[in-house]
Amino acid sequence: MVLSNFDSLCDRYTNMRVTFKFNLSIHFYEFKQYDIMNTILDMKHTKVTYEMPNCYADFDGKFPFEGIELLKSLELTTVNVPLRFGGKGLGGNTGNRQVLEVLKEVGSYDLSLGRIYEGHINALLLIERFGDGNQKERYFEEAVNGKIFGVWNSEMPTEPLTFNDLNGVFELSGAKVFCSGASNIDRPIVTAEGEKGTRMVIIDMDELRLNEDYTYWRPMGMKSSVSCRFDFSGVNFDQKQILGGPYDYVNEPDFTSGAAR
């Protein structure tokens, strides 16, 4: 897939209202053998207007709601959801180049939006790679219905995220930092240390009311990714929210490919 350059570039030193056109031109290269067919035909030659209120999103450090809605409208938030679950079926073993092209273009458009979008794509790839049948059915359906996912694995050595098994109910203790998207992310995957090693846990943020702590977030750019610290101490989860096995998050080649994205 090749995406054209945006028609307009934002002059980030003014407060003018600027309209961007998101132009998409789709080419399939040699991917016909993967039977992708019309997975993204509905996006072909699409033009969408995205009006940013202060010319450049990083001025006010607000979450890029308009950008997220744009990605949803173009069905870019489901590019790597498997076809059988209603997505485009790219990523994993098929269409990696196309996914990388999309990420590159979104990042060149708005780095904050790109940072959040990459986390969403990465989380869905982890669910495809390590999720069981029930998890795939639930979370891919949620993605198709507009839920935004993320991956939060950064932490301070003084407060690592851990969990204890309380007779089948698990309880978290500790915190994560640089949680991109903050409370606007519906289903973040966090890494937490348990008795058998580091595990991935899918958190239902719509059930929580956590304090967004921006003590550690003093960026020169990407302010609108609103990457905060969350203290998860006391948050409970069940077995159905544990993704994969011990240390699966750092298994290769998935870990390095996630860093590359």
TrEMBL record:
Ranges where the Acyl-CoA dehydrogenase/oxidase N-terminal domain occurs: 59-146
Transmembrane segments: none
One MF term in the entry's GO annotations: acyl-CoA dehydrogenase activity
Pfam families attached to this UniProt entry: Acyl-CoA_dh_N
Protein name in UniProt: Acyl-CoA dehydrogenase/oxidase N-terminal domain-containing protein
